[in-house]
Structure formats: C-alpha cells, structure tokens
Amino acid sequence: MPQAIRPLIKELGLPFAILVIPGIVLALLLPYFPVDETRYLGVAWEMWNNHSFIVPLQNGLPYSHKPPLLFWLLNLDWLLFGVNEGTLRFIPLIFSLINLTLVYRIALKLWDDRQVARYAALILASMLSYLLWSSVIMFDVILAFWVLLAVLAVVCAAREHRLAWYLQLGVAIGGGILTKGPVVLVYVLPVALLGFLWVPKERFSGKWYAWLGLSILIGIGVVLFWLVPAALTGGETYRRAILWGQTVHRMTNSFAHKRPIWWYLPWIPTLLLPWPLFPPAWRAWKRLSGDPGFRMLLIWGGGSLVIFSLLSGKQVHYLIPVLPTFSLLMARSVAEEQGDVARFRFPIAGLYLFLGAGLITASLLKHGKLLKYFDLMEIRIAAAGLVVLGAVLLLLRPRTMAALINQVAVASLACCVLVLVGGNTMFQRYDLHPIAAAVRQKQAEGYQVLHAGKYHGQFHFMGRLSQPLVELPSRDKIRAYAADHDKIALITYEKDTVSIAPKDYYFLQPFRNRQAVMWTRDGIATFLGESPDKKEPAEAPDSE
Q1: What pLDDT score was predicted for residue 72?
Q2: Residue 537 has pLDDT above 70, yes or no
Q3: Which Pfam families match (predicted)?
C-alpha cells in the first residue's frame, strides 16, 4: 500500500464506518420511499425497459424535471448486477464517501493540518441529516460531489494557475448540471466570483475571471454531449422544457415549493445536529475572521444560502451540498479550543436524554395515540437506547479534543441506527410493492389502471410495469372515462378512517397515514357517488 494512502485510510476509517453502517441497514431493511425515491427509480426503470438512454421517461412520456445522470447511474448498476433493488442505495453512499475525501482534501489545501481535515470529515459524516441522506436515491449527495470537486479546483487554482484546475472546475460544473441542472452554479459561483475577497492579492488578477469563463464554457461543452441529442430526439415540448424550464422557471418561479425568504434559517440548526450543541464548533469563529480559508468558507456557504433564500422554490434537501461548508468551519473552530474539553459533552448528552424521554412520554400519553402508526415497543426500545446513549456520554470523560470528537460522532451513528429501529414499522407503511404488484396483475389481465390526480411513477419500478397508468385529475374526468371503458381499476388514497367494503376494491393497503385503494368498477361507482362536497381525491405530494 502506498505510503500516502495509509494515513488517509487511518484518518477516514471512522467517518467511513459512520456512513456505511446505516447505509447497509437502509439497503437491507427499508423500502424505497415515495414519492421521490420511487419516482426516480420509476424513471430509471422506464429508460431501461424502453432502451431510452438519452431521454428520461415517466409514465411513457419524456421526463424533463431532472437531467439524466442519476438515472444513468441506476441503469449502470442494473447493467453490472442485473435489475435489482438491493444495490441501488449504495450509489449515493459511494458518492457520500468520496465527499468525505474531498472535504478532507479541501481542508488540507486551506490549512495544511491533518487534524483539522480529519475533524471536517468526521463532523460531516456524523451530521444526522447527512447521515440519513447518504443512502437515499436522490440528487443532493451526488450534486454535493460535483460542488466539492469544483470548490477544490477553485482553491487549488487560487494557489497556482494551472489549466488542469480550470478543466476540473469545468468538468465539475458540467457534471453538476447533468445531475440537477444549473442550480450547481448557485453553490459554486459565489466562492469563485468573489475570489478577490479571499484569494491573496499577489495571486489574484483579472485573468481569474477569464479562466473562470473558460471553465463555464467547458462545463457547457460537457452538458452539450447529452443536451443536443436529447433536444433532437425528445420532441418540441421536451426541448422547450430542458432548454428553458430547467434554467429559469424552476429556479425563479417554483410554484410547488414557494416559501418565505427566511424559511431556511430555522432549518439550518436542525440539519447540523448534533454539532450546533457543541460549543467549540462556534466559539472561535470571531477570532478566525482574518483567516483567508475561513473567509472563503463563509463566502461559499453564506453566498449559497443567500441565493437560495432569494429563490422562490425551497426544500430542506437543497441545503445538503452546503453542509460541507459548515463541517469545515466547525473543524477549524474546534482545532482552536484549548484546555479541558470534557465539559463540552454535556449539551449533546442532554440532547439524547431529552429525545429519549420525549419518545417515552409520547408512547405513554393517551396510550400512544400520538404515535399510532408506529410500533410502540420499537419506539420504547429506541427511546431507551437514546437514554442509555445520553447516559454513556455523561459518564465518559474524554481527555483530548480528538477523543471527544470521536465520541460525539459515534453517538450520531448510534442515534441514526436507533431512529431506524424506532421507525421500522412506520417505514413499512411506505412500501408500495404490494399495490404495485396488484397494478401489474390487473394490467396483465387487460385492465386500464386509472390514477386519481397526478401520478408520480411510484408503482413503475416497484411492479416492473411496462404500461402507463391513466392520470385523471378530477371526479368528472374519472366519471367520463368510466362511462367509455369497461375493464378499469382506479387508484386513490383515502383516509384510514374510511370503511370500504371488500366487494368495492381489488386491493387495499395502508399507505403513510392513509390507505391506498384500487377500486373495482362497482367500487368506482360507489366512490363517485359519495357526497358532492367531498374534496378531490388526494394524491402523493410532489417534493421535487
């Protein structure tokens, strides 16, 4: 083994383990969650099933909401291992592990301090939000890889002007666009455009922006390898959507997720848990303001947050690629702490004691009605585990900051596993395999399967479907379709308090806090004959 690799493996072994263990649990035990995971798996499945590897498909039509990179990766997995579900969660996990290495590298470039670099990787790995998102079939962890690769190139270019760094920056921009569209520029451009605020004056000149422009052109060139054939083959509607909708409409006028400008602020401490409760992570910020690397991180993270706050569409997971900035800031601050460190364990120990006590209380109040979709025994096991975890943190008295950081990080791993244990029964209410299999069976029998409201492709991969479902947005549309077709089945999502006669449905299963129902023809008549003031059928929310 090369000498340079050994210390890297030694220093990143614990951060890697913290991510891998929950990743294995997720891959083996939990279903894929609608609507996001099942939607993206459905798109990838339709690409695979229809051999449409340039234009993504959803429910038989071109899917323009996201570029194809994630879907290509899923198809690559199936090419290598056959069509399966067990290996797919390891795709984002691999990127998540690489992200730790990139954070480590960025820290070394900024401060040339292996201890700080290790802290940065360990803090990122043990943020509960990053831990849980690292094995989820979504775009944000993969996008974070391209963002980190781009920022590493910018940092290296600030030290020495070499074509290789601007080429790396361009490829990272292109990869980010192919992952989630031009939004990658929101994370990357602030730190690049404001280079004059953190790059040493003797290394900064007007050529910086010329080289940056070259990188953007390289990124566009990378994207064109897909964009040109996709625009030519996807049809006029798809062409307009990918050339205009991805660049302007979805970023500035996102009607689906409009939030106030301050919406992200209360979410930031939650996403960073447990580290906001760790005083050394913040105590040195003021005196580090003159550090160029620290200043760069504030510009990188602060600029991204400001731009995202100004954009109309906001989702919590949009901040996942920003989390590395906080881990780097915290690591640099932690390294400044001197003296006795054991006292800093108390707030985090208190967090786990509070969470455990809260869960135990919720499981007892009104005989556990607050947690009616959970298994109360699982909740109490998880709660007891959290209390024990808090007590252990109180009893341990680490002598060094490195030991304390390890202790807090391992506690995050334990907390994450306990969350998975406590929510196991509830999570099974998200499993769409049974109803997806029922859809496949009815289609095989020659039935048209109708879906009330927007269909997000959530059954396609779960049931390995090859036919589209018929989307009907209103009761009038359902009534009209039923009048003209004989062999039909209708899927709706009803309150779990609604009693449905067995003769009225082909299939029924619990789903989230409702029940997913596949109605028979007689059942459709019953459904349509309900009180006229009943709201339109509920549909799964679109959380893109």
Answers
A1: 97
A2: no
A3: PMT_2
Report the amino acid identity of residue 151: V
Whether residue 180 contacts residue 67, with contact meaning beta carbons closer than 8 Å, is answered with: yes
Mean pLDDT value across the chain: 89
pLDDT, tens digit (0-9, with 9 covering 90-100), for 68-97: 999 999 999 999 999 999 999 999 999 999
Q: Are 123 and 15 in contact (CB under 8 A)?
A: no
- Distance of alpha carbon 5 from alpha carbon 363, whole angstroms: 48
The total of other beta-carbon atoms located within 10 Å of residue 398's CB is 17
What torsion, rounded to 10 degrees, do the Cα atoms 132, 134, 135, 136 define? 80
Tokens standing for 465? 């479907």
Distance between CA atoms of residues 470 and 491, nearest Å? 10
Amino acid at 106: I
Give the side-chain half-sphere CA count within 13 A for 411.
Answer: 30
CA dihedral 52, 256, 128, 419 (to 10 degrees): -90
Neighbours of 127 (CB within 10 A): 25
In the numeric block, the tokens 């299939």 are attached to 507
Q: Are strands 448-452 and 488-495 parallel, antiparallel or unpaired?
A: parallel
What token pair was written down for 113?
Answer: 């301090």
* 87-92-93 Cα angle (round to 5): 80
Structure tokens that stand for 287 in this block: 């005196």
- How many CA atoms does the CB half-sphere of 130 hold within 13 Å? 37
Annotate 250-263 with DSSP letters as a single string: HHH--GGGB--TTT
Alpha carbon separation from 201 to 166, 215, 296, 492, 520 (Å, rounded): 19, 22, 14, 63, 73
Q: Which amino acid is at 483?
A: A
Mean pLDDT of 349-361: 93
Would the CA dihedral through 431, 433, 434, 436 be positive or negative? positive
The whole-number average pLDDT for the span 219-232 is 93
Structure tokens, 296: 């760069």
For 94, half-sphere exposure in the C-beta direction (CA atoms, 13 angstrom radius) is 9
